[in-house]
Protein 1
Amino acid sequence: MPRMIDVVEFLDNSGREIVHREPPDGPGDFRLGSQVIVREGQVAVFFRDGRALDVLPPGRHTISTMNIPILAGLINLGTRGNTPFPVEVIFVSTRQFVDQKWGTPEPLAFRDPTFGMARLRSFGTYTYQLEDPGRFVTQIVGQQGIYTTDMLQNYLRGIIVQHFVDVLGTQQRSLLDLPGQYDELATATRTALGRDFALNGLTLLAFYINAITPTEDTARAIDERASMGAIGDMESYLKFKAARAMGDAATNPAGGASEGVGLGAGIGLGASVAGMLGQALQHNQPAQQAAPPPATPPTEPAAAAGGPLTRAQIQEAIDALDLRFSKGEISEDTYNRMIQRWEARLKELGG
């Protein structure tokens, strides 16, 4: 025999419930004369067969065709109201829900005018309140099948992230400029969200962005570019990386690659590569120098038109080594090893 429900109410001891269904497991058997108790900060929505029947404000209500006229078409009045009819009562909180959390579930890729591409995370808070109980129950509880607070929060978070990504993508702002634009981005996102919240019977009262942060890989790339002393275009960045790699190889005292650079790698590379190497070595000089030193001749001479080196070119290389060693641009070990090589070449020419 089905259980008759004579009194239905819901007391939210946690203060966090947004939606609560009675009975919890589905429609229950009600009859005319049953009592519904709605507390302050709540409304009760009668729900049957995917349709909201009526909304009851705070207070004690007796289920009757006078209070809920639409019930007249759902029950058999010829039995004086004793025939049970299955309905659900959806209790919905009407208070403000503050400090609700939102955030991007995973890093999102954006086109950045300074860095080309950046992967970002973001999170913040928002405040909302129930505006239209009937629409809320129809759109959220009925169509979405959402009955729990956690399910509703996940649903709203998805809407928020979608609009936030759209706003951030259309702004075309550099990552370095974003910290000063949180208020503007939050206002634009709140405006975009207003319509979706209203369609679901809710009002978005406040929306905040607490942080927009790059991923670890993006942060390392930013730090590396900042180490150049100025952030320029990508071509300058690649030249800086190439010059630093060549400088590390030329000053490596472990041998191998440094010897190749000293004797052959510089031959025929041209003035542009030699200049990049000189800039890389100057980058490693002590910071206390007030001004960069005047340009010095390259350590390695370039053979004219691919021919053999002359005595003058080898002597020029030796003089360049002496000058760089005196300025501290190369280590003593590197200087000794390279000077021995060039002096041996000089002797081969009859010096």
Protein 2
Amino acid sequence: MQSSAKKKTYLFVLPWPLNAIGGVNQVVINLAREMEATNEILPLVLIHEWDATHPIFEDVHGIKTVRWRIRSYHEDMGLKDSVMFCLWRFRFAYKFRKFCNDHSVVAVNLHFPGLQAFAIERVLKGLSRKIPLILSFHGSDVGGISSASKMQTAQWGKLLSNSNNKVVVCSNDLGKRLVDAAGCDIPYFVIYNGLNVDSFCSMADESTSDGDRMILNVGKFDEIKGQDVLINAFSEIASKYKNVKLVLVGGTGKALPRLKALCVEKGIDNSVEFYPDIPHRRVSNFYKKATIFCFPSRREAFGIVLLEAASFSVPVIASRVGGIPELVSDGENGMLFTQDNQSELARCIKVLLDDPVAAQKMGERLSEHVKSNFSWASAFKKYLDLLENENAERQI
């Protein structure tokens, strides 16, 4: 058997710890586990951490990680920052070259790329062995490009349009947004997020519902996720449906105090429950008990939570934004409503509550669609295809 020291390594790069709550981390964790299952390529996650001036290895969620400082680089930074970057790059490039050789790194894949992407690209260019750079965008990272300075936007355009680099987006809609943000043609690859349905469903315990019907939302408590729209919509129907409660699960965000205050203002606080910062392994319990899943985001590249709801055949209602219509077909396997239209959302909720048989059929159709077309195994294969295409090009 081939020893692990001789196996090839796929290097993920993240701007935050792997144990942080969020969809991007779920993508990296699940892709890494698919790699481990093949026993052919080893995943290693590089975490940008300013205080880690040398590589610090540890296991997180059973995945090998390394914390290491990566400086930002942009062409319009000041003289002092430029000097500090050059000094850092000189030292880091030597260590990184040895690191890549020791671990037989075959690809560097940045997820949620920031200004560190320019530093990594410059370091990779200096290596004697070509290592492909893959940049995976997930949503709000594209917004960072849209709001960048004119010089930085041009720099992004140059990086992303470089044929030596591979650009991945999680929906066609996000790809179009990326092209608009960079202001130039970008050859991107669409790799949809996935879900290991059996594994996710197995996380749920044996507890049963308390008898009330549940409208569920899962997502960070943030203005962009539109939980205020859902609360307002629920307030329109709450008096008619006494046995229905609204449950909101998500990472703590700036909007949480305002959302709680809105429930009090609308007089529905006794019918609304908040569960902040629930570990991902426990979220499946909420889907298992849910009657309807509502996803009222104002902007969404894709939405892994829709796949999670589908794994339990929960009927979904979602805003018609971003990449959501690439997954949910209105009236067929779910319901879509116009962004920010609380009355339209309230009507959709009533339709599903009043016709549970039709709601169940929608949930089942979405579940079959997800099981057939959205798996982490499929996503992993498409990432491997990028590497195989890269190797083929290099052999020409």
